[in-house]
């Protein structure tokens, strides 16, 4: 498996404290399709947990495999890559900010195009 930068984000948000800091900055669309189910499981767990819990590798595996998985070996490899990821918190947070910026710029670009084509009201761009 090639290096996927978003792996570091998944490891970062296993910590409830880190997830709570960045949850409003992340979207499932920020992740490649193969990582979206893992992000969804972690985010759903933290959102629904009554108490802050940091997830370990075994916890992550339990949560992921408690749902149907198409390619078990591939998902196991992703989890192993998450566990072995050694990216620092500061570079991971920089990546999160960059993904958010890219998403916002794309939204503004699409909205600008819709306004230029007369399909949207231009007042939405004033905000």
Task: Compute the average pLDDT.
Answer: 89
The share of residues in helices is 55-70%
Distance between the termini: 42 Å
- Strand count, sense and closure of the main sheet? none
Number of strands: 0
Number of helices: 6
Overall radius of gyration: 17 Å
Low-confidence stretches: none
Q: What sort of overall outline do the alpha carbons produce when their principal axes are compared?
A: elongated
| Strand-residue proportion | under 5%
How would you classify the helix and strand content by structural class?
mainly alpha
Helix and strand sequence: HHHHHH
Top keywords for this entry?
127 residues; 61% helix; elongated; 0% strand; mainly alpha; 6 helices
Write a compact overview of the structure shown.
With 127 residues, this protein is mainly alpha-helical.
Describe the protein.
There is one protein chain. The chain has 6 helices and no strands. It is elongated and about 50 Å long. The longest helix has 28 residues. The chain starts with 5 loop residues before the first helix and ends in an 11-residue tail after the last helix. By secondary structure, the chain is mostly helical. 61% of the residues lie in helices and 0% in strands. The model has no long low-confidence stretch (mean pLDDT 89).
């Amino acid at each position: 498996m090639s290096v996927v930068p978003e792996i570091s984000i998944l490891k970062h948000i296993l910590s409830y404290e880190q997830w709570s800091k960045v949850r409003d900055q992340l979207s499932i669309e920020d992740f490649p399709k193969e990582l979206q189910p893992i992000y969804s499981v972690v985010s759903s767990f933290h959102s629904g947990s009554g108490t802050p819990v940091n997830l370990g590798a075994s916890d992550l595996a339990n949560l992921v495999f408690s749902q149907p998985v198409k390619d078990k070996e591939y998902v196991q490899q992703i989890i192993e890559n998450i566990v072995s990821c050694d990216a620092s918190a500061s570079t991971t947070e920089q990546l999160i900010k960059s993904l958010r910026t890219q998403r916002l710029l794309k939204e503004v670009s699409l909205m600008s195009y819709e306004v230029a084509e007369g399909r949207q009201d231009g007042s939405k761009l004033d905000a």
